[in-house]
Design a protein that fits this description.
Length: about 120
């Protein structure tokens, strides 16, 4: 079993399915650290009264370190920001090259733009 760093042990502990904050607190109180919990054997886990048999098997079966790494890579398509939505609306209206920040500063032009977008969305 590969050794994890401290942050990864905490990540593993906090992402155990169906193990809530009370059970995590009891585990930390008994073992002292997430690393000790990670390396705990079944007979030691059984000594914690708050854990059910299902919880013990969850802790023991979720030690696959390859899926526990807390990498920052995103899964799937990146989220759209509100700026992206404005740019897409401008392109729908045929104003893709327009500097929308200047338009926002002119209230009348911005209100006309918002009304035009709302009319497009309704129809």
């Amino acid at each position: 079993m590969e050794k994890l760093n401290r942050k990864e042990y905490w990540y593993w502990l906090n992402n155990l399915p169906y193990i809530g904050i009370k059970k995590i607190g009891a585990l930390i109180e008994y073992f002292g650290s997430p690393e000790a919990i990670f390396h705990a054997k079944e007979n030691h886990l059984k000594q914690i009264s708050i854990l059910r048999a299902k919880d013990i098997t969850t802790v023991l079966q979720n030690k696959n370190t390859e899926s526990n790494h807390c990498s920052q890579c995103s899964l799937g398509r990146p989220r759209r920001r509100w700026v992206d939505n404005i740019k897409m609306d401008l392109q729908e209206l045929g104003c893709g090259g327009m500097d929308w920040i200047d338009m926002v500063q002119d209230r009348d032009r911005w209100q006309a733009f918002v009304n035009a977008v709302m009319n497009i969305r309704v129809t």
